[in-house]
């Protein structure tokens, strides 16, 4: 019999909607002595069974739900079913997208036109949205990179690896659980290859563009797969244009811009190693003459934007894809000021009828708040913007209907109207 967590009166409503989190403040008492990652039954204030989940004694998210079925054991078969279900959904997505027109890759060295594969890299498991809370798995060709940030995921990691080995017998399985959020669960940071020999890097492709992914030191699990669709959209605006790619990281927006016919692209990032990888990505896709259209600038983007403003620089397309500015609600106001600052200067640097593609990957910044931040930035810049498209994470980063928090990436395509 599992230990039990009993909720306070009227605090079961979210669970009845199948939301997978129980916060510390919703708990009336704990029956038994569950250890970190242990499976507990969740009961309402009257003792009625609601769900079973993983207990985390040090996290504000005290329980993450595994199952809403009382008789479902959390065993090897459970994890295999969950991964199989996630894989089937991605295969459906790939089947759907393969019939869409591929990105015009005439200027790249890798052309997938006519191929049934739009990419060889995608998010296989998206945590709570795939019924595996705190577990992320990305597939890069024949390498699976997992990131476990929950006590329950850590407790059952071996079962997860068994499931992956069974379903992907020829794949390397590597873990990049080296994110600070693990400390909130009382977990140490872990980097470990569980199956096979990990290469330093792997080449993926998407929409005909080749990209080198740094599996050792790359951000997140190695790369930002969530922006795949948005990179394609950005490229469609760049024919004959001067493009500024801010917070460029490994330069993938620039690859799409150049493939889309950009005349000049500036990649701006504070990391020299990221810019070095950007140069490698350019060489994978373009000849020397085309590569010369891209300039790499190692500088703090906030300072660079101000310098460009002072010099009277103008750009036809600006991509603003900053890292997460906010980790908790205490920092939300400061983050909003940061987003507003960079978007205000971007508005001032845009040519008339120029296009700004601006993003926030901070889950605590809602779409409505982000819209307001960009609107206030335009107002302070004495600029009129028209929002012509809302952007979000690509479809392999699924969002469960019961878990709206899964929709973390938001963006806007804005056009600067003539005065």
Automatic annotation (TrEMBL):
Transferase among keywords: yes
Q: What is its main location?
A: cytoplasm
Q: Where is the PUA domain?
A: 3-88
Chloroplast as a keyword of this entry, yes or no, is no
Q: What class of enzyme is it?
A: transferase
Which keywords belong to this entry?
Answer: Cytoplasm, Methyltransferase, RNA-binding, rRNA processing, S-adenosyl-L-methionine, Transferase
**Which family, according to UniProt?**
Belongs to the methyltransferase superfamily. RlmI family.
Full protein name: Class I SAM-dependent rRNA methyltransferase
Q: Mind giving the lineage of the organism this protein is from?
A: Bacteria, Pseudomonadati, Pseudomonadota, Gammaproteobacteria, Alteromonadales
């Amino acid at each position: 019999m599992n230990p039990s967590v009993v909720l306070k009166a009227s605090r079961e409503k979210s669970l009845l909607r199948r939301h997978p989190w129980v916060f510390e403040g919703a708990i009336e008492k704990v029956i038994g002595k569950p250890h970190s990652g242990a499976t507990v039954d969740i009961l309402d204030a009257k003792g009625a069974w609601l769900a079973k989940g993983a207990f985390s004694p040090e996290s504000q998210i005290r329980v993450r739900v595994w199952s809403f079925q009382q008789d479902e054991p959390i065993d090897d078969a459970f994890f295999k079913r969950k991964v199989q279900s996630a894989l089937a959904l991605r295969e459906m997505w790939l089947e759907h997208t393969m019939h869409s027109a591929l990105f015009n890759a005439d200027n790249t060295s890798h052309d997938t036109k006519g191929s049934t594969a739009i990419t060889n890299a995608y998010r296989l498991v998206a945590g709570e949205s795939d019924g595996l809370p705190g577990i992320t798995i990305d597939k890069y060709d024949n390498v699976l990179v997992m990131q476990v940030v929950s006590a329950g995921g850590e407790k059952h990691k071996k079962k997860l690896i068994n499931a992956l080995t069974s379903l992907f017998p020829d794949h390397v399985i590597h873990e990049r659980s080296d994110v600070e959020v693990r400390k909130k669960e009382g977990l140490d940071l872990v980097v470990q290859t569980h199956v096979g020999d990990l290469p330093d890097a792997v080449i993926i492709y998407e929409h005909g563009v080749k990209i080198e992914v740094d599996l050792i030191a790359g951000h997140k699990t190695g790369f930002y797969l969530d922006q795949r669709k948005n990179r394609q959209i950005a490229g469609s605006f760049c024919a004959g244009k001067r493009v500024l790619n801010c917070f460029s990281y490994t330069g993938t927006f620039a690859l799409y811009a150049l493939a889309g016919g950009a005349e000049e692209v500036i990649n701006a990032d504070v990391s020299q190693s990221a810019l070095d990888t950007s140069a490698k990505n350019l060489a994978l896709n373009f000849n020397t003459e085309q590569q010369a259209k891209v300039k790499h600038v190692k500088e703090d983007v906030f300072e660079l934007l101000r310098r460009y403003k002072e010099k009277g620089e103008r750009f036809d397309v600006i991509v603003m894809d900053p890292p997460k500015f906010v980790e908790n609600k205490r920092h939300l106001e400061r983050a909003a000021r940061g987003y507003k600052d960079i978007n205000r200067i971007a508005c001032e640097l845009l040519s008339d009828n120029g296009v700004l593609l601006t993003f926030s990957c901070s889950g605590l910044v809602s779409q409505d708040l982000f819209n307001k931040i960009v609107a206030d930035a335009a107002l302070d810049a004495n600029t009129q913007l028209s929002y012509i498209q809302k952007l979000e994470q690509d479809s392999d980063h699924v969002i469960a209907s019961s878990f709206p928090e899964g929709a973390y990436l938001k963006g806007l395509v804005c056009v600067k109207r003539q005065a």
